[in-house]
């Protein structure tokens, strides 16, 4: 979840992906989230089987509670994301309304995953290090503590990239025409066609204006030559 989910979060924020189509980036975003969800389910099944084989109680620690909550909310986020943003059935107004909630929920789940990982490695150290104990700061404890610090730094970097406006994917020209006051980058095929027509009309106007300006310059030059 830490690595694949973070990749899904910033896939729209990488400048070298801006030249790719929005639909392609949507499929990549959905695919990465699906992979992360599958890996999360596999890992949870492995944990429960390990606990049952060793007669270890299940779901008693805060790490397990928050981890299970993160997986549940992540599955809901994935299902709603597929239904609203990937499939072409949801209206544009609904997508525009849910987009801020979708983004905020994704970032919150990612922060929860980082917190779950930190609690999990701390719990593992406390249970595993007996001689010397965790409190004696053996090399294993120092190594895992450094790993926890790197997780915090990595999570902060991902959240920073996801929240900075200059890292946001630039809107297409048709989005600027359809949503002049700011809106969702989602739209129907008909709206895209209308926007393309508007762009073509604007391009024609610019070409005509440029031709007229050049014609006026020629006339001015001719007038100047005639008076010299």
Automatic annotation (TrEMBL):
Compartment(s) of residence: Apical cell membrane
Q: Which Pfam families match?
A: Cytochrom_B561
State its cofactor.
heme b
Query: What is the uppermost EC class here?
Result: translocase
EC number, as in UniProt = 7.2.1.3
What cellular component terms from Gene Ontology apply here? apical plasma membrane; lysosomal membrane
Q: Which GO terms describe its molecular function?
A: metal ion binding; transmembrane ascorbate ferrireductase activity
Alphabetical UniProt keywords: Cell membrane, Electron transport, Heme, Iron, Membrane, Metal-binding, Oxidoreductase, Translocase, Transmembrane, Transmembrane helix, Transport
Q: Where are the transmembrane segments?
A: 23-45, 65-89, 101-121, 141-162
Its recorded reaction(s) are:
Cu(2+)(out) + L-ascorbate(in) = Cu(+)(out) + monodehydro-L-ascorbate radical(in) + H(+); Fe(3+)(out) + L-ascorbate(in) = monodehydro-L-ascorbate radical(in) + Fe(2+)(out) + H(+); monodehydro-L-ascorbate radical(out) + L-ascorbate(in) = monodehydro-L-ascorbate radical(in) + L-ascorbate(out)
Q: How does it sit in the membrane?
A: Multi-pass membrane protein
Name assigned to this protein: Plasma membrane ascorbate-dependent reductase CYBRD1
Q: Which residues form the Cytochrome b561 domain?
A: 1-163
Quaternary data: Homodimer.
Lineage per the UniProt record: Eukaryota, Metazoa, Chordata, Craniata, Vertebrata
Instruction: Extract the InterPro entries matched here.
Output: CYB561/CYBRD1-like (IPR043205), Cyt_b561/ferric_Rdtase_TM (IPR006593)
Region Disordered: start and end of each range? 180-207
Annotated gene: Cybrd1
Q: Does the keyword Heme apply?
A: yes
